User: Fold this.
Amino acid sequence: MVAGRREYPNPMKFFLLLIAGVFSLSAARDVEILWDKFGVAHVYAQNSEGMFYGYGYAQMQSHANLVLKLYGESRGRGSEYWGPKGLELDRWVHVNEVPQRAEKWFKMQTPEFRKYLTAFADGMNEYAKRHPEALGEEYRQVLPIEPVDSLMHVHRIVQFNYVSSALRVTAAGTGRAVNLGPLASNAWAIMPKKSENGTPMILMNPHLPWQDWYTYYEVHLNGPGMNLYGASQIGFPVLRFVFSDYLGFTQTVNNLDASDLFRITPEGDGYIFDGEKKAYEKSSVVIKIKGAKDEVLEIKKTVHGPVVWDKDGKILAMKTGGLDRPFLLEQYWKMAIAKNFAEYQAQVARLEVPTFNITYADRDGHVMYLFNGTLPKRKSGDLAYWAGVIPGDTSETMWTSYHSYAELPKTIDPPAGWVQNTNDPPWTSTLPVMDSTKYPPYFSARELTMRTLSSLRMLSKEEKLSFEKMVEYKHSTHLEVADRMLDDLLAAAPPSAAKKVLAAWDRNADNLSPGAVLFEAMMRGFRPVYKVAANAVDPLKTPMGLKNVEAGIESLAKAAVEVEKNYGKLDVAYGDVNRFKFRRADYPGNGADGALGAFRVIRFGPQKAPVHGDTFVACVEWVKGGPHAQVLVSYGNSSQPGTKHDVDQLPLLSQKKLRMAWRLRKEVNAHLESRDVF
Assistant:
């Protein structure tokens, strides 16, 4: 066996055995999957093992090709399966020892949870056995799916996409600005005192790119004493967004810094640390490349972690938080099946999940926001310092432990009756704001985005918030930045057709909004300077007013020429330009970049089609008979060739509507499309 590499069974032999029905799949006991008319799987099982089995089967039916692609990449074998285009990712996976660590972590799982991961893989393999014709030929070679694969994939995505980023390494190594990707997700949790009906509510609204490993999958899992509804990213065996009869939680990406890059000082064939020469820990991995010669990847590690950049005299080593926390998946699972706040809090306090803000609500009326993650304890420095390249020749910059759950910023049952997060720092999780000076300066940033200001404004506007109003606000395309500065610009601007269009504009980015295209074009070349500067303690009133009015007038004039040239008129409807054009569908678009203050975030790419934004949405209210919810998966719940569930929810997205979440069996049966029985 090659160092750092797991040997898998011959894929063709396995595939033939699957077709022949040779494999025995132990988890398939009394499992039923009911598929509704939107392609959502409702899994009914006699035990938890069966639920995982059904969930695995369902993911494959909906996204088989994507699952196999992602698992192949997370094994570090993308270039072996599909050629040199996967080489960079394979190097990243192996330099960070993802396959080896996942194997160790799998052995460390409890016997019970190992059974669940095995059942999840068994369900996926059962789908391959029953429907070999549905699998893309290029993806079949990834079979069989092994019990460790889902853990390996989650480890790759969480620790080495969210926590440690290859893009950040490139930026630090080259010294050039690299787009690390925008942050955009929304989360609200509402206490009964804030609710018009006296019922607790939660808004789940993650935003991510509309492709690849980012893809969310909606599912409904039922077992003894469990009715779990929610979503997770493809390939994950547990739900990251979930509500049950008892509680619900959602997540947003936070700016918690759990990963650092250290500049290494070389000395001969080693490096300097605390005035002494140390030897690198060395190993190698053979990466097979389809159609090309194998590559031997030489890996060097320092006391910090692996060397991730060694070019042009610059050597960087990376230290990633959470690599000593193997129970992320189990924690998610036990958070989901908790039946009250005490049980939930006992699980979230484990801090096995190394990043993400977590927002919570339950039927008893408790709400909570947590700035969650494995946050290193550091001796000094602020967030900007640790975001750069850190001197790696001294133990003074070396962290070895994390802040405890008790030390992390959190808000529980606040007087305002609500908590929120829009990827903002923890200080504005409710109003009045939290005192950030009580925490070390490296904990989090202090700047707020326009989307955060929009969120705080909407939550503060209503004395009591109804479920219907929450759904309406979730879809808000109102551009907060316009309210903060446009009046001053219009007051100073000379008469023009462009001024007339903006004066009549409703300041929304809706399908028919006639001034939003012009305003967006103006803002692309303009950075407002406010009369009243931003004050994090008073986010409802600051920043406000426009100082650099002349620059704004100039930018508006340029935007008018651009819009007139491109679209023939200045008041072109927003949805005529920006389209929900995805796969084979094409509908009028709405939503905008969160930097402009839109709560409904949709980023339209160069082709004026969506590339990022609303993915899974759930608005949940715990009423007397149980949770009532409306949901949506913007791009549909399947990506397999020939499916009808890849674009069937786009009309609702265009209409700013959600659909009912069917949690009762009689509701599912009333909207049944097909059934699988095991």
Q: What stands out?
A: The longest strand covers residues 201-209. DSSP finds 20 helices and 31 strands in the chain.
